[in-house]
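Exam prep: given the inputs below (a chain plus guanosine-5'-diphosphate), describe the expected output before reading on.
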Amino acid sequence: LADKMKIVPSVIVKKLFMQGKIVTVNQEIDYDTAEEIALEFDVLCEKEEVVDVIEELLKEEEEDEKKMKKRPPVVCVMGHVDHGKTSLLDAIRHTNVIDREAGGITQHIGASVVTVNGEKITFLDTPGHEAFTAMRMRGANSTDIAILVVAADDGVMPQTVEAINHAKAAGIEIVVAINKIDKPSANIDRVKQELSEYELIPEDWGGSTIFVPVSAKTGEGIQDLMEMLLLTAEVSELKANPNRRARGLVIEAQLDKGKGPVATVLVQKGTLRIGDAIAAGSAYGKVRAMMDDKGRRVKEAGPSTPVEILGLNDVPNAGEVFVGCKNDKDARSFAETFISQNKAKLLEDTKGKLSLDDLFTQIKEGNLKELNIVVKADVQGSVEAIKQSLLKLSNEEVVVKIIHGGVGAINESDVSLASASNAIIIGFNVRPDATAKETAEREGVDVRLYRVIYNAIEDVQAAMKGMLDPVF
Ligand code: GDP
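Solution:
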């Protein structure tokens, strides 16, 4: 058949594999299957091309430095529950007078842009690290800076530590906002003291982390915080090329009764314009209308700009990558390829995840130099004991990194962190909860449970022996 169609047999084999049929080159296929392939061949050809395009797009292209322009920072807010993340985001939006000029209510599109001293900052409106790590799990980095909110009357709490570790694992900047300083029980120094145990040391204590005392209630310090975000962005030299086809992330999406599928996208590179053909995950279409976060109609959106768009044929998932395409046809085949590729890709990703069993093979193939571990235990003492023993296993060739440690059942946050950071999870006298278990299975995260500390250490050590590069 391949000969008749003048194509390489592997294309047909691959196509059938996508449908779940395992065939070899020498195998006979029945007439119906052959006919189906022949009929679909035109489309298939395009898909093969699109796969290449996807692969090219997903690889971080080398951009011409000269074409790069400064872009606003994208900021998210993380921290323990009730420490004031939502209030802080509200306070930030309210200090921005432009909201009111536009006629009152700020549109909720999942992200907002604030102008400070003539410079823009983009905020992702979903507080917490879950949304952030969910995106990272799909391979998408959404954020440049995390504001770590810590209530001055409560100090560092378990989710504060989670947030720190999620942000660190993603390699993003952390700016600390010590909130609720209006409260009589506020103790700013205590927060500084507690955070310094997590390597977040304030500048006035000789460290390099920016701490800003704020009150989301009175608005005190908010302006300072904004200026510190701009300073951090300045130092990071955030840039993107605005003169190329747009590419970015879906922040949120839903089906509107009147408007059809509505998606908020964050443009990360290039410029998105009305009339552009785009594909977002399995959805595709032409941008019919665009609205900014103030509810104003806009014609184009450049890097770091969130916009709500109309015109997709379906509702994409949050965290999906969107790409601007040459034309409608390309956008459509892109989306269709995404659907067919997805299953295979997921399988591949799962196989790629780190597991103690195949550590050695992974090293040989990919030269893994860091072993990332999440430790959960029933009591703090055990967490520390396991952490210390594991860290000691580090040697010249392999560095053991405990990217997160905490007390309590293994939760979804632990699993998503491990998945996004290619880490394994070690549980001591604890179990994963139901959602965590499900997520771990789906994401292929290796979760190891132990009742004896020694056994845990021994297992990792054994796996690491295989990790050592041969010495010549
Ligand atoms: P989140 O769970 O982190 O999003 O926290 P919220 O923003 O919902 O705030 C939790 C509670 O703390 C609410 O009752 C807020 O009114 C209160 N709160 C937030 N920020 C401040 C603040 O700066 N000062 C005071 N006194 N209360 C605050």
